[in-house]
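Section 5.1 Outputs to date
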Amino acid sequence: MSYGTRVLIFIFLVIRCGFSKGEQTVVPAVYVFGDSLVDVGNNNYLRISVARADHPYYGIDFPTHKPNGRFSNGKNAADFISEKLGLATSPPYLSLTAKSNANKNNVSLDGVSFASSGAGIFNGTDERFVSSIFHFSTIILFWPTFYFSTKMGIGKKIGLKMR
């Protein structure tokens, strides 16, 4: 059995067994790290990127029927997990930091997606596209930046709850 198949089975079992209808699980937020399987649009905010999901066929089965940065025709794994937890889909990290975003100082307490399509777990995996995508080692560094800027933006009391 391939590694990817084992990961999908594990995720399915966690979702299936982790939530019963009789109990209410409180999950404050979903923070997503990964590649195209869970990317919700970070690559669309890169100026030069060959890995963009802004073509008409991406998102055709999504509720808006428009391209939305997901490398699928509808929802991806991160969307389904957030939905199952009763949370909104985590916005792309770069949408919160983009200069063109009028709401760039808004914080998302429901979570954020740091996932970027094409990100390899090893820095050499994506050598050909080094200038147009993020390495996983870079994606991981987005978390402390987000955490501390959010903590400063919403106050120390709420920021301490964000773990």
